[in-house]
Amino acid sequence: MEQVYLDHAATTPLDPEVLSEMEPYLTEHYGNASSVHQLGRKARVALEESRERIASSIGAESSEIIFTSGGTESDNLALKGAIRVESTEEQPAGLITSASEHEAVLQPAERLKDQGHPVTILNPEQNGAVLPEQVEEAIDDRTALVSLMHVNNETGVKTDIRAISAICREHDILLHCDAVQSVGLYALDVNDLGVDLMSISGHKFHGPKGIGALYVRSGVNLGPLVEGGSQERDRRGGTENVPAVVGLAKALEHAVEGAQQKRKRLRRLQQRLINGIDRSITGPYVLNTPVGDTPVSPHVVNVSFPPDGGDPVDGEMLILNLDMEGVLVSAGSACTSGALEPSHVLTSLGLDRETASAAVRFSMGKDTTSEAIEYAIDKLQSTLERMRG
């Protein structure tokens, strides 16, 4: 087996059927969707039909979908756009989020704090979840927005968004959900979840890179992040990426149709990987993806390999050594790879720096096989034994 790709939480391969649907809009139907001639009109039709398909896939109206460049832009637009509109000169609007969020939420939150907005960062429980009662206790008369992810991109832990949305509605507060890791694994309905804003990104479910969407519930005011054009109802300027939008619609439909069966298959693979690590790794390890009663997504297994009586295992070197064996994994978020600091998600759970720095994230996808998992377990065992000496 030459290569085993176990980094699907970072990105997924483009589905050939998605590429096929995109191709006409990369070649003969190349018009600008804002142009009034026939090529422009054809592009506009494809854009709006795709918007309808995406909205239908998540239980929304087409007018509630804004196209962006991906999850990071969607998160930034949700936080900065909502907080800007909800603020007054007398009272800057406040935000509640958690220490285990993606940097696409934490960095805008830090910027808002620097601008004088009250920002509360909740620490997750030991299992990685943010509890509804934590949110309720943090709300005050300045809070305008709560932003929490549905599935954590590093540990796979799920947050009870439905329960938190009920609290937000009771206090008349907006709720944003980064659903980048859960769309495609779960058939999400925005009304069932009770969210006001929700971020998705195409390349996480076998769509193209560079395209995402932000769901904005009807009636929610949102200031633009990218200015300079009237596109997307004045909420996101710039020429629309029609081929990518068409691909996003196709990929999302595929993902939603097969979500339940995909989860069942991935759950078996996840358990196989956890059992294999427990069976084959002789030295100490810490499973950062909780097992038992904590709800977790079935596509992620995050595990640390702390010191075994000698020098600590360097997580980056472990990943590079596995790469040489044909096993492709990561240390966590691809957006922060190369950083010298240990994962902020793992340290927020109470892990010490050495253990957090020795973490590896295995993330599986629709094409991952049992044979690939067994191969990864075998190479992990031999690589660790060699590194631990």
Draw up the topology in text.
Elements lengths: L3 E2 L10 H11 L11 H20 L7 E4 L2 H16 L7 E5 L4 H12 L4 E4 L9 H7 L4 E7 L11 H10 L3 E5 L11 H4 L3 E5 L10 E5 L14 H4 L7 H16 L1 H22 L5 E2 L12 E5 L10 H10 L2 E2 L15 H5 L4 H5 L1 E5 L6 H19 L1
Parallel strand pairs: 1-11, 3-4, 3-5, 5-6, 6-7
Antiparallel strand pairs: 2-8, 7-8, 9-10, 10-12
Helix pairs in contact: 1-9, 2-9, 3-4, 5-6, 10-14
CATH architecture label name of the largest domain? 3-Layer(aba) Sandwich
- Unreliable stretches covering 5 or more consecutive residues: none
Number of helices: 14
- What would you report as the Rg, rounded to the nearest angstrom? 21 Å
Structural class: alpha/beta
Shape: globular
Strand order of the largest sheet: 2-8-7-6-5-3-4
CATH level 3 topology of the largest domain = Aspartate Aminotransferase, domain 2
The number of distinct structural domains comes to 2
Distance between the termini: 26 Å
Give a count of the beta strands, DSSP E runs of length 2 or more: 12
DSSP helix fraction: 40-55%
Q: What is the CATH level 1 assignment of the largest domain?
A: Alpha Beta
